[in-house]
Amino acid sequence: MDNSSPDIEAIARLARLAIDPNDVPQYQDAMQRILALVAQMNAVDTAQIAPMGNPHDLGAALRADAVSERDNSAAFLALAPATENNLFLVPKVIE
Amino acid sequence: MEYTTIAQMSAALAAGTVSSVELTRAVLDRIGQLNPELNAFITVTPEQALAAAHDADRQIAIGKHGKLTGIPYANKDIFCTQGVRTTCGSRMLENFIAPYDAGAVERLGTAGMVAVGKTNMDEFAMGSSNETSYYGAVLNPWDKGCVPGGSSGGSAAAVAARMVPMATGTDTGGSIRQPAAFCGISGLKPTYGRVSRYGMIAYASSLDQGGPMALTAEDLALTLGAMAGHDGRDSTSVTRDAEDFTRLLDTSLAGLKVGVPKEFFAAGLDAEVGEAIESAIGVLERLGARRVEVSLPNMSLAIPAYYVIAPAECSSNLARYDGVRYGYRCSDPVDLQDMYVRSRSEGFGNEVKRRILVGTFALSHGYYDAYYGQAQRIRRLISRDFANALAQADVLVGPTTPSTAFRIGAKSSDPIEMYLCDVYTTAVNLAGLPGASIPAGFDNGLPVGMQLIGKAFDEATILQVAHQFQQATDWHQRAP
Q1: Residue A66 within any structural domain of the chain
Q2: ipTM
């Protein structure tokens, strides 16, 4: 595990977040301390241990491939900040 | 109010000595009186509550009622409620009105319970003090200079202050048990998959679990019976038959083995809290339980593993808040990227951003196996530790938290110190086991919580131990 300080601004770009430049040192410090805490996991040899993603080791639940929902589009569109012609409206992507 | 517990209210409703409308009015009055100071509720819904109470009274009048018909309660503001806004403690969802009810809310409604409003919480359930809420901190009814715990801090404060007899909570790393301990009430995190996560806003999906918070173990048992059950709309909901969680309440503890993990009493535990829990274990022994010393050798790795798994899953779950389909959108975005970035940056608070950043890093190329993979392997070790300990005992007991409630602001500038509040609770979520916190004493006027951890799907035994303890003690009857 690499505990060198991660580049907060690069991670923020991946996470689609903007961090105020004045706040970068504070986030950087918190991140470093959290990663140092997390590094305690390195003390354990887990080479023979299988990862556990679900506490009951259950796989994905499957259901019959059949229509089970009615059309809720009007209710969902009503929640959107902007819509037009039954579509979600976003700023222009292509000039 | 004359009645405080659900069991008392239910008996009075059945006997006709009080109506649901009267109970609901009393609850709404008390919320109106106390909430301006405590800030336990984000939204109160008197009209809907009174309409539901009238319906309940009609059901009772024609004899078509159950034990929970007409009982007022509150929902943590993480549960979607049709027609009533659901903020999740965030600016991001300040104006979000869900078009459906969460599975757990639907079930409590079917049981006839009367929802009176939505309780305050740490933003997106990320916090242990309720200080990260966009809607302001909640005050602890026992000492208004102290936090109520979190993230279900509003629910805990509302129950402790006798505003409502029960409130729903959710627990990803301790968010039902820790505030229950800090506010001197009873709270149960069921086995992972017991209560539907449908409509329960996701934080860390492999850990999140909803459950009841109330004054007594009996009330937890009654309400869990209504909340739990398979829901095909949640792919992690377990398929199990309905259960009567009250069935063991009156069974003696004679011969029951109570495991005491030594790691729960190691450095970091306040001496007074440790003494209160030791006395409480003494009560269980006097009730016939046998004390067994057990060990959870990987316990110290629970917080490190949790603070990889939970942020990783949070960064993935919270990617949905992009300002397109619902939730906050920034004003005048110049392009799509600007809209995503500014909507998220203005809509989320600092702690949420911090966890998204940690999770994004842990899942990023070149780091995934070292962080997320390793945390998931540690998770299995912790789960095995519990399986070994619970092979020697029927339940495990220990403190819920290392200290009693702390002062508002005392830990808010130091995320690590805040994370360590959950040092005894996160492991239970990693293993997916049921865990409860019940009042077990006081230190300097602040409540101490005892944690009870059971085998998977064995909530009934936890509730048996809790109820028997509450028959022999009066900590749960103390009111702030």
Answers
A1: no
A2: 0.94
